[in-house]
Specification:
single chain; mainly alpha; 434 Repressor (Amino-terminal Domain); 0% strand
């Protein structure tokens, strides 16, 4: 069912952001950093305590690797766990000691850069 009021819309947007962030195994800090916003502000958006501008929604969608359309469609986008190599990377990261996770991220970021 489509949101009816502006409160419903902002609640829906916050819920979708949180769903997609969690589906990707991303923290608030990761998404906020990629979206160039304060972590607490993103937290408030997810919980419908603050209202994001359309520009902020676009930055958050980009940070999640989604289009605004995908984010707002209400349909789950392709989840990392649905892609075998991403599922394995996620497993390795989860199994790694916390201090090694940052190193793993740096390696993946380096390898993911275009040549």
């Amino acid at each position: 069912m489509a949101p009816q009021s502006s409160d419903d819309i902002y609640s829906f947007v916050g819920r979708r952001i949180r769903e997609e962030r969690k589906a990707r195994g991303m923290t608030l800090e990761e998404v906020a950093s990629r979206a160039m916003m304060n972590t607490s502000f993103l937290h408030y958006i997810e919980r419908n305590k603050k209202r994001p501008s359309l520009g902020m929604v676009k930055r958050i969608a980009d940070a999640l690797g989604l289009t605004v359309r995908d984010l707002l469609s209400g349909e789950p986008a392709t989840k990392p766990r649905d892609i075998p190599v991403l599922r394995r990377i996620t497993e390795l990261v989860r199994e790694a000691p916390p201090k090694r996770r940052a190193a793993i991220l740096k390696v993946v970021q380096t390898l993911a850069k275009p040549d």
